[in-house]
Amino acid sequence: MKVLANDGISPSGEAALKEAGFTVITDKVEQSDLIDYINKEDVAALLVRSATTVRKDLIDACPNLKLIGRGGVGMDNIDVAYAREKGKVVVNTPAASSLSVAEIVVGKMFSLARFLYDSHLYMPQNGVADFKVLKKKYGKGTELRGKTLGIIGMGRIGQALASYALGLGMKVLYNDRSSNSVDIKLHIHGAGDLTVTLDKCDKETLIKESDFISLHVPKQENGEAVLGTAELAKMKNTAFIINSARGGSVDEEALLKALDAGEIAGAALDVYENEPTPNEALLKHPKIAATPHIGAATVEAQDRIGTELADLIKEHLLVKA
């Protein structure tokens, strides 16, 4: 059986599939050619990340496609319910990249607090001629210890982020649609394991009291932003936003206006409304630290994703073969 990893797969995942007897295709097929390719090559499993979409037209047009796999957490780019209704197996790897996304958020908090994203840009250009000017410009950073982190969405990634933040000495508030409390586990080398219980906080209090707000929510069914004009107006003018969840979770136009008006101190974005062509004003704004949707893109996470997808494919297809 053939597996098309249209957005790539780790070497370990590819090796595991080949060892089980699958033919693995890693050539990128353009979205417009995908239906014809799947049918022509008799592809049994299609693996995607965020670049490839699997909608009703593809599901209907590819009757021999048995499994659709999403490497990562969200499955916004797949018509999941419809695919399952049509007898397709749909799987993802929600836990594999949690630590990677949590770590990029921590990195962004440090970058915002100490202006690292900006100084890394301007020191190579102007560091010799304007060393004293830049030293003064970037010399008013803040520490993370003692600050309050508000996490909106306390799933696997939110919990991983909470453990890092607690380890840094931050106070953690969270808001989530389901859980009223959550146990955060910390492992400290040389000291063992520690569990911290956090109670749910109402969203308005979180917004008003947080020094950093990090979003970890799925795409909203109503299409509205989690943080829009009204929410931004309630934040501290010294506070920062980090969005590594979904483009549109923060109203981008409202964010630009809030930054220009000094209503908040800055933001860090890894996801955008119009990927892969985000609003250029966001990328060039002096108070925004931007990265190109790389939250889950670590060697370790990709390895876990690949091997987990391989296990899921073997579990569902080899049994039925």
UniProtKB/TrEMBL annotation:
An annotated Gene Ontology molecular function: NAD binding
InterPro entries: D-iso_2-hydroxyacid_DH_PdxB, D-isomer_2_OHA_DH_cat_dom, D-isomer_DH_NAD-bd, NAD(P)-bd_dom_sf
Domain of life: Bacteria
Residue ranges annotated for the D-isomer specific 2-hydroxyacid dehydrogenase NAD-binding domain, each copy included: 107-295
Tagged with keyword Oxidoreductase: yes
Residue ranges constituting the D-isomer specific 2-hydroxyacid dehydrogenase catalytic domain according to the UniProt record: 6-315
Pfam families attached to this UniProt entry: 2-Hacid_dh, 2-Hacid_dh_C
Keyword NAD: yes
Keywords of the record: NAD, Oxidoreductase
SUPFAM superfamilies, A to Z: Formate/glycerate dehydrogenase catalytic domain-like, NAD(P)-binding Rossmann-fold domains
Family: Belongs to the D-isomer specific 2-hydroxyacid dehydrogenase family.
Protein name: 3-phosphoglycerate dehydrogenase
Organism: Luteibaculum oceani
Lineage summary: Bacteria, Pseudomonadati, Bacteroidota, Flavobacteriia, Flavobacteriales
